[in-house]
């Protein structure tokens, strides 16, 4: 995810590579790869990078947050803006780990940030001002759309927008597999599939018709679409999609319970 943000910010000319510092304690090779590819500054020393940063973006796995913040907290201050893209980790928990009043904003982008097309939401923690929100919005607007939401909704939004691209790629993979079964030329088939999806999205965005009206427009009685849609209906495709999204949202809430719970006797 960090790479998608970096790539998007540079491509969209929101930030110069020399002003982006990337750290990665565990993986030196990955740092060199990012330096080579984007010209960003890299360091395996969090301390060095942290001291000079105005904005810190946390992008490790949720399970690593405790350890990560333990190593950086003494190099962070209330003058820095802390952004976290970690699924399931609350702003309160990050503030608790930091142990000071730095503003923390929970951000849920998706990997389409790499091409400037993320659907990002941001949600402020308790020490956040309008100015912090404006800076964060402007940063992530460079890599897609940004909406401010309540933190209670971020788990559900993570299931739709954070994980969402993966469901789309899964669907496309299935469509690509059909090319073999149909003995169609791969390159031509792939191009047609992607343009078909792009066209459907364009129409969804520009028309005021519902998805149902749009698919009914495609379907002719006794025709090909009907034959295909019958399979989706018989296999309860929409129920599967709803269940998929519900499970993802539930997992985000579980991550909060497993990895982001503040001990009860903590003073706030
Ligand atoms: N992959 C995605 O589409 C999205 C991911 N996220 C969130 O982004 C975070 C990262 O996810 P991915 O990029 O998929 O995982 P990843 O495993 O590809 O990247 C995490 C990176 O953090 C590094 N790291 C771990 N501890 C560190 C530390 N203490 N200091 C510096 N670097 C450290 C790891 O070496 C690794 O390179 C997760 O918390 C996830 O919930 C959020 C939105 C979308
Ligand atoms: O799979 C995950 O947990 C992360 C959060 C959203 C997308 N990827």
Describe this structure in words.
This is Pyrroline-5-carboxylate reductase. By secondary structure, this protein is α/β, with parallel strands linked by helices. The chain contains twelve helices and seven strands.
Features:
268 residues; alpha/beta; Rossmann fold; ProC C-terminal domain-like fold; 2 domains; 5-stranded mixed sheet; two-stranded parallel ribbon; 7 strands; 54% helix; globular; binds 1,4-dihydronicotinamide adenine dinucleotide; binds (2S)-3,4-dihydro-2H-pyrrole-2-carboxylic acid
CATH topology of the largest domain: Rossmann fold
Report the β-strand fraction as a percent range. 5-15%
Separate helix tally: 12
Low-confidence stretches: none
Question: Tell me, what's the shape?
Answer: globular
Note the gap between the termini: 31 Å
Characterize this entry briefly.
It comes from Halalkalibacter alkaliphilus. Helices cover 54% and strands 12% of the residues.
Topology:
Elements: H1 2-11, E1 21-23, H2 28-38, E2 41-43, H3 46-52, E3 55-58, H4 65-72, E4 81-84, H5 91-98, E5 104-108, E6 118-124, H6 130-141, E7 144-148, H7 154-162, H8 164-181, H9 186-206, H10 211-218, H11 224-234, H12 237-259
Parallel strand pairs: 1-2, 3-4, 4-5, 6-7
Antiparallel strand pairs: 5-6
The structure holds 1,4-dihydronicotinamide adenine dinucleotide and (2S)-3,4-dihydro-2H-pyrrole-2-carboxylic acid.
Pfam family, one: F420_oxidored
Binding site for NADP(+): 59-62
Subcellular location: Cytoplasm
């Amino acid at each position: 995810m960090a790479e998608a943000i970096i790539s998007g910010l540079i491509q969209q000319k929101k930030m110069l590579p020399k002003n982006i510092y990337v750290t990665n304690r565990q993986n030196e090779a990955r740092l060199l790869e990012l330096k080579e590819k984007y010209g960003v500054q890299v360091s395996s020393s969090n301390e060095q990078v942290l001291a000079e940063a105005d904005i810190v973006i946390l992008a490790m796995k949720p399970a690593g947050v405790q350890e990560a913040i333990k190593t950086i907290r003494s190099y962070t201050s209330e003058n820095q803006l802390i952004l976290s893209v970690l699924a399931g980790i609350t702003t309160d928990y990050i503030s608790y780990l930091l142990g000071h009043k730095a503003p923390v904003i929970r951000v849920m982008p998706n990997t389409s940030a790499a091409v400037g097309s993320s659907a990002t939401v941001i949600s402020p923690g308790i020490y956040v001002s309008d100015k912090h929100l404006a800076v964060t919005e402007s940063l992530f607007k460079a890599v897609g759309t940004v909406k401010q939401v309540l933190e209670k909704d971020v788990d559900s939004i993570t299931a739709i927008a954070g994980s969402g691209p993966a469901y789309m790629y899964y669907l496309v993979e299935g469509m690509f597999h059909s090319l073999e079964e149909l003995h169609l030329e791969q390159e031509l088939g792939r191009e047609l599939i992607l343009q078909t999806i792009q066209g459907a999205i364009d129409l969804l965005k520009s028309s005021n018709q519902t998805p149902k009206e749009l698919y009914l427009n495609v379907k002719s009685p006794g025709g090909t679409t009907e034959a295909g849609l019958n399979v989706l209906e018989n296999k309860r495709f929409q129920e599967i999609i709803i269940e998929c999204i519900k499970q993802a949202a539930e997992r985000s809430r579980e991550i909060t319970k497993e990895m982001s719970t503040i001990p009860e006797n903590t003073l706030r």
